[in-house]
Design brief:
The protein is α+β, with helices and mostly antiparallel strands and 72 residues long. The protein has 1 helix and 3 strands; from the N terminus they run ββαβ.
């Protein structure tokens, strides 16, 4: 897992995402653009919920396939 990896958009702030599915919770860091698109995707197509926290992202793994969420 890419703990503390590089952002695909280093000029954007990282966002702390907490994804809650019925039986599992996961936490990731993602650049602002990818986080916004990911939240919309989950709301439209997935059974889970996503919470966005303004807290530090240090030590969190990057959102898997983060680059795929850079465009809506």
């Amino acid at each position: 897992m890419n703990i503390g990896g590089r952002s695909p958009c280093p000029d954007e702030p990282d966002i702390h995402l907490a994804i809650q599915f019925p039986s599992v919770r996961m936490e990731f860091a993602a650049c602002l653009t990818a986080a916004l698109v990911f939240v919309c995707d989950v709301a439209a197509h997935r059974p889970g919920t996503v919470a966005v926290y303004p807290s530090h992202c240090t030590g969190l793994p990057r959102l898997p396939n983060e680059r795929l969420y850079l465009q809506p």
